[in-house]
Write a structure and sequence with these properties.
With about 130 residues, the protein is mainly α. The chain folds into 2 domains: about 5-35; about 45-80 and about 100-125, no CATH class. The protein contains 5 helices and no strands. It has helices spanning about 5-15, 20-35, 50-65, 65-75, 110-115. Helix 2 runs parallel beside helix 4 and helix 3 packs antiparallel against helix 4. The protein is flat and about 65 Å long.
């Protein structure tokens, strides 16, 4: 029969291999930061430029497989509310909602970012 310590080790290894443990740690970290955040100090409104910068940071993190860091970024921007007025077209996002700051929860469409930044995409490897 396995000991409690052995069961803990197997459980920890399993959760790490599935990526669940890292996600939970990132979520806890984000919630700690949210709890420490001063709600009395209002956040500035999200400008069009900052929306694009946030999206570029998110895309960078996801492209480089920093999924836990990306989840902390989104959690830091969060407190979901319904998609309301914003500085980008509704077609740029899948319409799942926005964060408290106005940042879309679902990443903006890549083609929208390319147009907004006047960039071009290499068709071979989808790099900008």
């Amino acid at each position: 029969m396995a000991t409690v310590a052995e069961l803990k080790a197997v459980l920890k290894d399993t959760l790490e291999k599935k990526g669940v443990l890292g996600h939970l740690k990132a979520r806890i970290r984000a919630e700690v930061f949210n709890a420490l955040d001063d709600d009395r100090e209002p956040r500035p409104s999200l400008s069009h430029e900052n929306l694009l910068i946030n999206e570029l940071i998110r895309e960078y993190l996801e492209f480089n497989k920093y999924k836990y860091t990306a989840s902390v970024l989104i959690a830091a921007l969060c407190n979901l509310h319904l998609l309301g007025s914003s500085s980008f077209p509704a077609s740029a996002s899948q319409g799942a909602g926005t964060t408290e700051s106005g940042q879309p929860v679902v990443p903006l469409d890549r083609q929208f970012l390319i147009r907004e930044l006047n960039a071009f995409e290499e068709s071979k490897d989808n790099t900008i």
